Amino acid sequence: MSSEHIIESILALSGQGIDKIHIAVDWEHLLMVTLWKSGPPPVFDVICLLKKAGLGEAELLPFKAADSNDLFPWLFYGKKFDVLRKICNAAKAKTESKINGKHGSVICHLLADDAARIVASSL
């Protein structure tokens, strides 16, 4: 379990010799893992990430000056689950690269704001 220091928690787990890491996080922490940065991610970095996930410039233009947390409701209620899955897979790949393959696998889950259900996953 981790609250604010998700990157440090993942790195600490990587030294414990476990076979599988499940990362279950909210939107902001998913972005931190995907971008491998502590703290709230800049919206510019998030927009670049979403472009890599297949969204177009015109779709993202209204969010240019928004908070990065404003993007999740748009993606979720807009049923852009394929994009959310791509972000989960990017977080999985980033984590695996940072822990140098010390584990059998990393699985990443994006939780809804109420943390009661998984919205997207790298499975």
Primary descriptors:
123 residues; alpha+beta; three-stranded mixed sheet; 46% helix
Short description:
By secondary structure, the chain is an alpha+beta fold. It has one domain (6-121). The protein is built from six helices and three strands, in the order αβαααααββ.
What report would you give on this structure?
By secondary structure, the protein is of the alpha+beta class. The protein is built from six helices and three strands; from the N terminus they run H-E-H-H-H-H-H-E-E. The chain has one domain (6-121). A hairpin with a 6-residue loop joins strand 2 (105-111) and strand 3 (118-121).
Element string (H = helix, E = strand): HEHHHHHEE
Give the rounded overall mean pLDDT.
88
- Residue stretches low in confidence (pLDDT < 50, at least 5 long) are none
Strand content: 5-15%
Structural class: alpha+beta
State the major sheet: 3 strands, mixed
User: Distance N terminus to C terminus?
Assistant: 20 Å
Q: Kindly state the percentage of residues in helix.
A: 40-55%
Query: What characteristic shape results from the CA principal axes?
Result: globular
Number of strands: 3
**Biggest sheet: strands side by side, in what order?**
1-2-3
Number of domains: 1
Write down the Rg. 14 Å
Treating each run of at least 4 consecutive H or I residues as one helix, how many helices? Answer: 6
